[in-house]
Amino acid sequence: PLRAQVIGHGAYLPETIWTNDELARKVETSDDWIVKRTGIRQRHIAAEGELTSDLAVAACRQALERAGVSANSVDLIVCATATPDETFPATATRVQAQLGMTRGAAFDVQAVCSGFVYGLAVADNFLRVGQAKTALVVGAETFSRILDWNDRGTCVLFGDGAGAVLLRAQGCNGGNGDRGLLSTHLYSDGRHHDALYVDGGPSSTQTTGYLRMEGREVFRHAVVRMSEAIDTALEANDLTPGDIDWLVPHQANVRIIEAMAKRLNLPMERVVVTVDRHANTSAASIPLALDEAASDGRLQANELLLLDAMGGGFTWGSAVLRW
Ligand code: ACO
User: Fold this and answer.
1) Residue 153 Cα, ligand 1 centroid: separation in angstroms?
2) Exposure string (b/e) for 146-176, b if CB count within 10 Å is 16 or more?
């Protein structure tokens, strides 16, 4: 059997940083409120003219360089984004062109904050059946462009950034000791549209719109759904919480992350947390966290990682990855 192994990782964060104090000069909020409720201290904001595809390209280039792989040996680019450059074509095709890649296929996946887990699942399935051998999965977002900067309930929560992994199909024995993606599980429930959505779009309003969220409702569901996704992931791989070395969750709110750590009985030292510095970067948050923990030497070969996410839709899901 074939398994999708991570052979490279990369990240990009825009240069400009906005602290909570800077936001407190724009809307009625405070550093104290934001830190207590969310754990967020700052966020990166894309420069004028800096597009989602630019962020994605920077992260992809780094992943390719780390792996020593040329863009033209990539068969597939899956770009997870809810903030594409344009309504069409897919941002992934702009990334493809900028990387100088003239073969293979590139498309976007839209599952908001679960986008990276969705993207991984899509690429994993291509790789397992042999339809592609090498795939880039990139989560890239410029949420600053769809925030209502007058709504303090949402504008303080998000940031911009991109993270990427390069996957390659490798032969394996098929057990859970093999490196690579052991499983992915995806879920959605469209009945929860009103809890988290953007009030614009080409078909509905011919505008881009702004993010709208019922924070409490999302919080409540996130804890329940992300817990369920953890349980399914463990069960499917015949694992117990003690087998997991690292939790790499979507970074929306440190309180949600702490609840997931508790469910896995993991000390917070074994949880990758970036929400304090990145805020919620939607589909980019998990690959940014992966890149950080891999780059600073926390993630060691053969360790077992659990990825867990939830986003608008609602969508949610998990992935188990032997690093
Ligand atoms: N600064 C100060 N006060 C604020 C702010 C702010 N930035 N935002 C809201 N408040 C006020 C509210 O107006 C409210 O005041 P009131 O009691 O006088 O009406 C009070 O704070 C409490 O508001 P709540 O929304 O009930 O606060 P809560 O404790 O639920 O925290 C939060 C809000 C942080 C948004 C929380 O609900 C949360 O994190 N939810 C999950 C959000 C999330 O994860 N979203 C991303 C999902 S992924 C995706 O797909 C994009």
Assistant:
1) 5
2) bbeeeebebbbbbbbbbbbbbbbbbebeeee
